[in-house]
């Protein structure tokens, strides 16, 4: 548990980007229920936090991926974050949709990118990794070399770890579920009684969801 992960978690809690509710679980895009929801787009409204996150992304990219040609954001949460990082690094920026547009130029990748270019993909958060890896595949189909992905937060689910491993994608995040829960406990953001439910969900989100389906 490093200082950056805990500081980032504190920022997310400070701006209420993290919502916890065991009694009325949140519904993810997949239809699954969860007692926790993280909306990192809120951080864009706070210049100090936005800058902190941007710089941490830059640090990770420089340390783990070195010089790259292009920054790619995953639509929609990774677009603004990716553009900020690309601006700081002085690199071209593109963003990737979950599928091709149904009109106009029918692009899935917006912006100029070429076969052989090295790319780092920027996400706001990782749950199962499915939408993130759709973006990776789209870039690879264009002939790009995806060196890896960075994200603000990961729930740390086993299914995500497996999906990234199977896709041969290196993922680095600024903070994670364990750091978030640790800081949330220290700040009395969550009740002691909620911890067991959060632990159970993390261990088996599918079963937890099924048990809490209305």
What is the number of beta strands?
10
- The CATH architecture is 3-Layer(aba) Sandwich
Q: What class would the helix/strand composition place it in?
A: alpha/beta
Number of domains: 1
Span of the ends, CA to CA: 36 Å
Low-confidence stretches: none
Task: Characterize the largest beta sheet: strand count, sense, and whether it forms a barrel.
Answer: 6 strands, mixed
Mean pLDDT: 93
Order of helices and strands: HEEEEHEHEEEHEHEHHH
Strand content: 15-25%
Strand order across the largest sheet:
7-6-5-8-9-10
Helicity, as a percent range:
40-55%
Looking at the structure, what is the overall shape?
A: globular
Count of alpha/pi helices:
8
In CATH, the topology is named Rossmann fold
Q: What is the CA-based Rg, rounded?
A: 17 Å
Per CATH, the class reads: Alpha Beta
Written overview of the protein:
- The protein is built from 8 helices and 10 strands.
- It is an alpha/beta fold and 214 residues long.
- The chain has one domain: Rossmann fold (3-Layer(aba) Sandwich), CATH 3.40.50.2020.
- It has a 6-stranded mixed sheet with strand order 7-6-5-8-9-10, sandwiched between helices. Strands 1-4 form a two-stranded antiparallel ribbon.
- It starts with a helix and ends with a helix.
- The mean pLDDT is 93.
């Amino acid at each position: 548990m490093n200082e950056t992960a805990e500081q980032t978690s504190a920022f997310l809690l400070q701006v209420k980007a993290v919502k916890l509710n065991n009694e009325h679980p949140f519904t993810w895009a997949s239809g699954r229920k969860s007692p926790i929801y993280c909306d990192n787009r809120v951080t864009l409204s706070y210049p100090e936090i936005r800058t902190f996150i941007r710089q941490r992304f830059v640090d990770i990219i420089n340390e783990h991926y070195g010089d790259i040609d292009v920054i790619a954001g995953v639509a929609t949460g990774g677009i603004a974050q990716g553009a900020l990082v690309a601006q700081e690094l002085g690199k071209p920026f593109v963003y990737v949709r979950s599928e091709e547009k149904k009109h106009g130029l029918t692009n899935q990748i917006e912006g100029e990118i070429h076969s052989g270019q090295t790319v780092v993909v920027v996400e706001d958060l990782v749950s199962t990794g499915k939408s993130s890896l759709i973006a990776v595949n789209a870039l690879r189909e264009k002939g790009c070399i995806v060196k890896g992905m960075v994200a603000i937060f990961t729930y740390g689910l086993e299914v995500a770890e497996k999906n990234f491993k199977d896709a041969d994608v290196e993922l680095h995040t600024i903070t994670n579920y364990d750091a978030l829960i640790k800081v949330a406990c220290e700040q009395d953001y969550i009740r002691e009684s909620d911890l067991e439910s959060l632990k159970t969900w993390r261990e088996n989100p599918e079963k937890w969801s099924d048990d809490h389906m209305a």
